[in-house]
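We emphasize that the prediction below concerns an isolated chain of 89 residues; any contacts that depend on oligomerization or on bound cofactors are therefore not represented. The input was used exactly as deposited, without trimming of termini.
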Amino acid sequence: MNILVGDKYKITSDKLNITVNESYEKLNDEKEPTGEIDFKPIGHFGNLVQACNFLLDRDIKIGDAENLSELVKEIHAAKKRICESISNK
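Result of the prediction step, given as a token string:
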């Protein structure tokens, strides 16, 4: 499995785990940005549902919602992004 979730996350898998990876910009030897994007693992899960719940929870925690209405909008947007990424495979 190798599924992009938006342009910030990627879900990969092996025989034992589902891994959520986050994008980052690589740095050269002088610690300057190279413009090259790669992914690093940020969580390992036993199944896809747990991985998707992690992504949803992460988006909510780092979101900018200042009231319940904004929070609901953020939740719907995150769910839509995750579901579209999974269903496109």
